[in-house]
């Protein structure tokens, strides 16, 4: 195996994987394109070789936990989502019957806001009060009833009071938040389908699920023990790539400039963004509608970027609602200011950053990967010399330049091997 000096022994478990790729890279047919070579390499490495996630990040949430309890657990472990275990499943249940889905910060917030939005009209309220809505469990009906009083009538996400400083303090003290069980919102909004990989599946499958199929994390199950063995996240994949720097296969690809690779893929006019004086809920609404994980905040009437709001930041509406109490309106700018101040006071080494990370078109892909890994994020904005937005690059874009999906690759993968939960709407 030929490698750069200093790379003879793996410096980390991730670098060990990179050396496996290097070994396979060296024996590929010379007429293959670099992408075809890497496809073949990653197809021959099982996901069981991916380094295990830290034990504090592989947690499970019981289906009978309340939304408040789920938020507390996610926050304590500094993770954005977790698989939900059906407490009523038999002990010998297979993993498909044991897990009912993934719960996320974003899903909880969007679901709660939707319930308060329903209270604006009378149809949803009347159906609950009259017992006509058979789709709601008794516990959920009781919870909705708890926020149906007149004082909640103005909590429509698009009404002025929805973004006032005391809105989320009121919300997190409501019966809806305290009494609703995690299982009651299963299959709603941004809940992810519980697609999992078996340990024998390949790195290529994992990379394609994260990129083309837009999964934010990929659980790996142990069929013998009927449980999750590992969870592969986007930042973990970025870190794996960063640890491969110096290897020939990585340098042949990572040394290229962004513009040489056709990055960013999106034109400046197509960037989904919010202006600094818009309500912060507009940012989260756009993320839900457009299926993106973050939006840049720009100066009013311009293109100059002043910050970034990520789907991960939605947690701060639930875990620290008191930081907005002095605001008549939580604008995107006020949200960024408050979150940064809160993090400065409470979370010195927090991975949840609202600061904007940027790069230039002339930077190499390796430079970008290094930046993403140092900040533990998977989204970076491309700006010009004046700080104006020119595009955005995500891990999905990076993977799309690394590998491609062969024709018919997944076959009946989604239909037979990994069935969706019966209650999934995703």
Automatic annotation (TrEMBL):
Q: Which residues form the CBS domain?
A: 54-119, 266-325, 352-410
Q: Which keywords are on file for this protein?
A: CBS domain, Repeat
Q: Which domain of life is it from?
A: Eukaryota
Q: Which GO terms describe its molecular function?
A: protein kinase regulator activity
Q: Can you tell me where the transmembrane regions are?
A: none
- A Pfam family name for this chain? CBS
Q: Which SUPFAM superfamilies match?
A: CBS-domain pair (SSF54631)
Q: Which InterPro entries match?
A: AMPK_gamma/SDS23_families, CBS_dom, CBS_dom_sf
Q: Mind telling me what this protein is named? A: CBS domain-containing protein
**What species is given as this protein's source?**
Solanum lycopersicum (Tomato)
The uppermost taxa in this organism's lineage are:
Eukaryota, Viridiplantae, Streptophyta, Embryophyta, Tracheophyta
């Amino acid at each position: 195996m030929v490698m750069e000096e200093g790379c003879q022994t793996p410096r980390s478990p991730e670098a060990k994987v990179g050396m496996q790729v290097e070994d396979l890279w060296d024996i590929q047919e010379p007429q293959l394109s670099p992408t075809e070579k890497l496809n073949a390499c990653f197809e021959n490495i099982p996901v069981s070789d991916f380094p295990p996630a830290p034990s504090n990040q592989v947690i499970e949430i019981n289906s009978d936990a309340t939304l408040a309890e789920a938020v507390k657990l996610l926050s304590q472990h500094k993770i954005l989502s977790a698989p939900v275990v059906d407490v009523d499943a038999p002990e010998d249940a297979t993993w498909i019957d044991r897990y009912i889905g993934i719960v996320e910060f974003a899903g909880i917030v969007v679901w709660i806001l939707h319930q308060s939005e329903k209270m604006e009209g009378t149809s949803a309220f009347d159906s609950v009060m009259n017992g006509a809505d058979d789709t709601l469990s008794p516990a959920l009906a009781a919870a909705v009833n708890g926020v149906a009083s007149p004082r909640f009538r103005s909590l429509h996400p698009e009404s002025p009071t929805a973004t006032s400083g005391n809105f989320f303090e009121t919300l997190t003290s409501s019966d809806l938040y305290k009494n609703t069980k995690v299982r009651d919102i299963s299959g709603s909004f941004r809940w992810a389908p519980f697609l999992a990989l078996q340990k024998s599946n390949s790195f290529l499958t994992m990379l394609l699920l994260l990129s083309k199929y837009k999964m934010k994390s990929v659980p790996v199950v142990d069929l013998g023990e009927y449980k999750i063995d590992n969870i592969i996240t986007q930042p973990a994949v970025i870190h794996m790539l960063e640890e491969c720097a110096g290897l020939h296969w990585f340098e042949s690809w990572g040394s290229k400039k962004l513009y040489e690779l056709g990055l960013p893929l999106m034109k400046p006019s197509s960037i989904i963004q919010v202006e600094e004086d818009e309500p912060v809920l507009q940012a989260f609404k756009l993320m839900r509608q457009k299926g993106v994980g973050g939006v840049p905040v720009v100066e009013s009437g311009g293109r100059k970027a002043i910050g970034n709001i990520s789907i991960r930041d939605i947690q701060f509406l639930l875990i620290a609602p008191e930081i907005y109490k002095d605001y008549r309106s939580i604008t995107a700018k006020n949200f960024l200011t408050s979150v940064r101040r809160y993090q400065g006071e409470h979370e010195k080494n927090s991975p949840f950053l609202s600061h904007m990370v940027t790069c230039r078109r002339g930077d190499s892909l390796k430079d970008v990967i290094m930046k993403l890994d140092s900040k533990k994020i998977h989204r970076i904005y491309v700006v010009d010399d004046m700080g104006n937005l020119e595009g955005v690059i995500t891990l999905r874009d990076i993977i799309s330049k690394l590998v491609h999906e062969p024709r018919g690759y997944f076959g009946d993968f989604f239909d037979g091997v990994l069935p969706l939960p019966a209650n999934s709407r995703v």
